[in-house]
């Protein structure tokens, strides 16, 4: 079936809209988050393109987040203002996820709200690409996943009152489009779109299509560019990283070797390999392990298993066995020091028996994964699994709760107290007090440090541990003085590995948001965490001076710290009270001086009044 292309509705004219591309001079790589992004401006006239304010809401995986950043960059380059406040925006751009029913329900809710507020709407992402005829999309402009480079045209025409639909799959969007990153230190780099699988429950394949890989040269060029922009973490993202290059005659290890050669030798910029399904890395395990040992690559990998039962895996059409998954985990754990592996589980897949579920629980217990994304099965319209006999919902919920309880009983960070780790600091915690860093194994470390530490690397002593992250104290900042490229030879053993990092300890937790049920990397409603991050940034800006830093340190020592991960899950960490330490004395002295000053002023004022009478 052919896609709808350039369809104009409700314009009263048979002439297609006169689409206009952005001015070439206005388009550049690395458009920053400047005053135009954060400042709301009223629209002088709807007849003048590029003067309005756009609100962008993103659901889904890191690939979707990258698409939103590219669309934001193009709109900003054309002159549009970007706002996190939907009420003050002139148009809403909604980037959607089709993996789970809750994500699509959230899309329906925001569309309804936009319509009731008379906001022009543009819907992008996997939902319109995979389900273009949804009733909820009637009368709304939509843009496909491979048409994001035309977002300016679509927004311009929608603001004129036209309905535009661009869904035809074409060549991959260029990687050097303007981009506005949610986090200026993190580049989400899509290396391919689509996948080679045919999972019976997955709707994403309907939207993203068959595998399409970017060339190695284009990806190397993008890495060079973002490093020069000051990026400190590069996330390789796709629907299946392990399948990279099979459509163009190359493979993932070849790409990774080319990329690490471009990374600074001082490990000031780190590479994180995205989600990969087991079938496509089995033949490259030793090469992948060699790359994961590299000082500039996080020793972390997301490998979805989905079930511990071969019977269920066959029904899912996952194309591997539990034994093959174990081979992946065992090999990487053996060959990569301090290796951390995250996985996904779907509870209640059609046909899953109690015995199948027990096998899944046993698998999780065997490996005690530090991070498991647990999902209940959601039937997606148009997929083979939607026609299969369902497990009763009460059974699905019970199994999900049971597996969650098993997972949460693990203590992956025990024994880390007192250890010194190298961390890379790239974000502000949602409490507005801590900065967020990660170890070589991508364990999240929350530290108290000034804002200028963002984007830096440091040695940190782990002071306490929790279930979901650890707390640390910065003891030394690492100066990055080398501009040379990373070592051409990958790291064969522990000795060279230790040049750039102190060994991380067993256990770790990625700050990735919730993973897609299909295994796609980092699936969640990203804007929820971004909104929290925005509030954290604003609060942190008020604490830049010395007094603010002292108050932040006291908060860490004397209050319960509520720290929300990037996934939006909120976990509490309690810090024991200390008696009359240095910070206490400083604050007590300051308070005392303030009280005495106020009393003196009041007394002087009263004396003056009495004297005047």
List the helices and strands and how they pair.
Blueprint: H1 35-38, E1 53-58, H2 62-78, E2 81-83, E3 91-96, H3 101-116, E4 121-125, H4 126-130, E5 141-143, H5 151-159, E6 165-166, E7 186-190, E8 192-193, H6 204-208, E9 212-213, H7 216-228, E10 233-237, H8 252-260, E11 270-272, H9 285-292, E12 300-302, H10 310-316, H11 322-335, E13 340-347, H12 354-367, E14 371-376, H13 393-408, E15 420-428, E16 435-438, E17 444-447, E18 457-465, E19 470-478, H14 494-500, H15 526-541, H16 546-558, E20 561-564, E21 570-573, H17 582-612
Parallel strand pairs: 1-2, 1-3, 3-4, 4-5, 5-6, 7-10, 10-11, 12-13, 13-14, 17-19
Antiparallel strand pairs: 8-9, 15-16, 15-18, 16-17, 18-19, 20-21
Helix pairs in contact: 7-8, 9-11, 12-13
Descriptive report:
It comes from Vigna angularis var. angularis. The chain crosses the membrane at residues 586-611. Residues 181-414 form the Radical SAM core domain. One of its GO terms (molecular function) is metal ion binding. Its EC number is 2.8.4.5. By secondary structure, the protein is α/β, with parallel strands linked by helices. Among the domains are: 49-166, 3-Layer(aba) Sandwich (Rossmann fold); 186-409, tm_1862 like domain (pyruvate-formate lyase- activating enzyme, Alpha-Beta Horseshoe), CATH 3.80.30; 419-478, OB fold (Dihydrolipoamide Acetyltransferase, E2P) (Beta Barrel), CATH 2.40.50. 33% of the residues lie in helices and 17% in strands. It is built from 17 helices and 21 strands. The chain has helices spanning 35-38, 62-78, 101-116, 126-130, 151-159, 204-208, 216-228, 252-260, 285-292, 310-316, 322-335, 354-367, 393-408, 494-500, 526-541, 546-558, 582-612; strands spanning 53-58, 81-83, 91-96, 121-125, 141-143, 165-166, 186-190, 192-193, 212-213, 233-237, 270-272, 300-302, 340-347, 371-376, 420-428, 435-438, 444-447, 457-465, 470-478, 561-564, 570-573. Strands 2-1-3-4-5-6 form a six-stranded parallel beta sheet, with helices on both faces. Strands 15-16-17-19-18 form a five-stranded mixed barrel. Helix 8 (252-260) links the parallel strand 10 and strand 11 (270-272). The radius of gyration is 26 Å and the shape is globular. The termini are far apart. Mean pLDDT is 77; it is low at 1-45, 486-549 and 551-579.
């Amino acid at each position: 079936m052919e896609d709808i292309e350039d369809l104009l509705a409700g314009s009263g004219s048979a002439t297609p809209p006169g689409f206009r591309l952005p001015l070439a001079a206005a388009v550049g790589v690395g458009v920053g988050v400047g005053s135009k992004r954060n400042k709301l401006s009223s629209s002088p006239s709807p007849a003048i393109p590029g003067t309005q304010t756009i609100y962008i809401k993103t659901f889904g995986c890191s690939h979707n987040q990258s698409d939103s950043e590219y669309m934001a960059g193009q709109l900003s380059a054309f002159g549009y203002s970007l706002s996190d406040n939907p009420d003050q925006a002139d148009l809403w751009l909604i980037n959607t996820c089709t993996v789970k029913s809750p994500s699509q329900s959230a899309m329906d809710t925001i569309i309804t709200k936009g319509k009731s507020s008379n906001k022009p709407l543009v819907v992008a992402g996997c939902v319109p690409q995979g389900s273009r005829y949804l009733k909820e999309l009637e009368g709304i402009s939509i843009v496909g996943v491979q048409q994001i480079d035309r977002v300016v045209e679509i927004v311009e025409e929608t603001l004129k009152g036209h309905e535009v639909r661009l869904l035809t799959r074409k060549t991959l969007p260029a990687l050097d489009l303007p981009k506005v990153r949610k986090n200026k230190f993190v580049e989400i780099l899509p290396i391919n779109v689509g996948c080679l699988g045919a999972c019976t429950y997955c709707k994403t394949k309907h939207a993203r299509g068959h595998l399409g890989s970017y060339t190695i040269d284009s990806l190397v060029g993008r890495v060079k560019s973002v490093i020069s922009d000051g990026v400190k973490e590069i996330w390789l993202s796709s629907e299946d990283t392990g399948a990279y290059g099979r459509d163009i005659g190359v493979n993932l290890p070849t790409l990774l070797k080319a990329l690490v050669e471009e990374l600074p030798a001082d490990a000031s910029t780190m590479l994180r390999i995205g989600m990969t399904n087991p079938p496509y890395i089995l033949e490259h395990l030793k090469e992948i392990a060699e790359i994961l040992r590299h000082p500039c690559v996080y020793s972390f990998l997301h490998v979805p298993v989905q079930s511990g039962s071969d019977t269920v895996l066959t029904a899912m059409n996952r194309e591997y066995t539990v034994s093959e998954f174990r081979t992946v985990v065992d090999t990487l754990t053996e060959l990569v020091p301090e290796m951390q592996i995250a996985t996904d589980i779907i509870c209640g897949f059609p046909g899953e028996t109690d015995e199948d579920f027990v096998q899944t629980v046993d698998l999780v217990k065997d490996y005690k994964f530090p991070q498991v994304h647990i999902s209940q099965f959601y039937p997606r319209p148009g997929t083979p699994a939607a026609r299969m006999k369902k497990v009763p919902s009460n059974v699905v919920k019970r199994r999900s709760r049971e597996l969650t309880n098993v997972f949460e009983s693990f203590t992956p960070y025990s024994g880390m107290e007192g250890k010194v780790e190298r961390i890379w600091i790239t974000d502000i915690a949602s409490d507005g007090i801590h900065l967020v860093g990660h170890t070589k194994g991508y364990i999240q470390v929350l530290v108290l440090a000034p804002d200028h530490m963002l984007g830096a690397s440091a040695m940190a002593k782990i002071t306490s541990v929790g279930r979901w992250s650890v707390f640390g104290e910065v003891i030394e900042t690492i100066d990055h003085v080398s501009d040379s490229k990373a070592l051409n030879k990958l790291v064969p053993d522990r000795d060279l590995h230790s040049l750039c990092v102190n060994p991380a300890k067993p256990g770790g937790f990625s700050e990735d948001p919730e993973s897609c049920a299909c295994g796609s990397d980092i699936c969640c409603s990203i804007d929820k965490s971004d909104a929290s991050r925005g509030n954290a940034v604003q609060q942190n800006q008020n604490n830049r001076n010395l007094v603010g830093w002292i108050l932040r340190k006291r908060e860490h020592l004397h209050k319960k710290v509520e720290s929300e991960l990037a996934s939006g899950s909120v976990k509490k960490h309690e810090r024991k009270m200390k008696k009359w330490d240095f910070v206490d004395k400083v604050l007590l002295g300051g308070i005392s001086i303030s009280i005495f000053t106020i009393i003196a002023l009041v007394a002087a004022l009263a004396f003056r009044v009495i004297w005047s009478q």
